[in-house]
Amino acid sequence: MIPIVSLVGYTNAGKSTILNRIKISDAKEVFVKDMLFATLDPSSRKAKLLNGMDFIISDTVGFVSKLPTKLVEAFKSTLEEIKHSDLILHVIDASNEDLEIQYKTTMDILEELKVDRSRILTVFNKMDRVGGDLLINPRHGENRIYISATHDESMDKLLKAIEDNLPERFYNAKLLIGYADSDTLSEILNKHNHENLEYREDGVSLEVILSEAEFRKYERFVV
Length: 223
Ligand SMILES: Nc1nc2c(ncn2[C@@H]2O[C@H](COP(=O)(O)OP(=O)(O)O)[C@@H](O)[C@H]2O)c(=O)[nH]1
Ligand SMILES: [Mg+2]
Known about the structure:
- This protein has 223 residues and is an alpha/beta fold.
- 27% of the residues lie in helices and 26% in strands.
- It is built from six helices and nine strands.
- The strands form two sheets. Strands 2-3-1-4-5-6 form a six-stranded mixed β-sheet, with helices on both faces. Strands 7-9-8 form a three-stranded antiparallel β-sheet.
- The longest helix is centred in the middle third of the chain and has 14 residues, at 99-112.
- 27% of the residues are buried.
- It binds guanosine-5'-diphosphate and magnesium ion (MG).
- Magnesium ion binds next to helix 1.
């Protein structure tokens, strides 16, 4: 499954700017079949990480400053989809004077939605408008980066951070390795527990659990 990254945060934080500046993957590709949830809308697109992996980046409705508590409640339901995200980019306008309250409000909502903090990457945006580093105390387990979405070099920094913060995925793969590729076979047998190993006419078939990187490495053997 292709990882899903969601943007959340107040209106004007820079979410759309980020979405629009991330290079999209081959536009011809159909990606609806990859989606976990049906609420796919034009604010989602498929993009590539620096390591070549595809992911889906999805914008959400922005919070409005000084949203009354009652509205915050109603708003939460629109955020349900982020529960399906592998990573949440919590975008903050670092130059906003209400920065701390906005940070806290969003984090509280994510907490109420039971989003694991390890799945949140706080993105302090508009750093070009701020002098020096920001001193908001991080909450335990939360990662953060500082960028200016309007600057090109920030996009690579953001992509790298997404790559580093996406949870490791594992695949239960069934492989068929031809007898000519016996080196690959012994490499896999040495490193992995396997199941259902079978010597067939066309090669050895077996089932192993592979990381994303290994899956890509052995992709041509996957059946
Ligand atoms: N100076 C500066 N402006 C930015 C940056 N990122 C976004 N903006 C501007 O902030 C405004 C709001 O951005 P937008 O992406 O629409 O925010 P959204 O409401 O979260 O989608 C726009 O005018 C952007 O051009 C940044 O890094 N630096
Ligand atoms: Mg927007």
